[in-house]
Design a protein that fits this description.
Blueprint: E1 2-4, H1 8-29, H2 35-51, H3 53-62, E2 64-66
Antiparallel strand pairs: 1-2
Helix pairs in contact: 1-2
Length: 77
């Protein structure tokens, strides 16, 4: 079993970048703004989300801990 330990600011930045990606995608699909503004803002937010994906994945992977290597035993053992 693995556990993930993240400090609040790290967790917050990962959530914010995922939210930007989702909001940008939603904006691209909506019709609330003019097509030009919607496309510019939506593409910028999607680009931000895509660019920050690799650092976010690296951060999460670096904070994953294998419980068995730390001396913990699974409840299933």
């Amino acid at each position: 079993m693995k556990t993930l330990e993240l400090r609040l600011p790290v967790f917050g930045s990962i959530v914010a970048t995922r939210a930007a990606l989702g909001f940008g995608a939603g904006l691209l699909l909506s019709d609330k703004l003019s097509a030009r503004k919607r496309r510019a803002i939506g593409l910028a937010l999607v680009a931000l989300g895509v660019v920050t994906t690799i650092p976010a994945v690296r951060t999460v992977r670096s904070h994953l801990h294998d419980l068995s290597s730390r001396g913990y035993q699974s409840a299933l053992d």
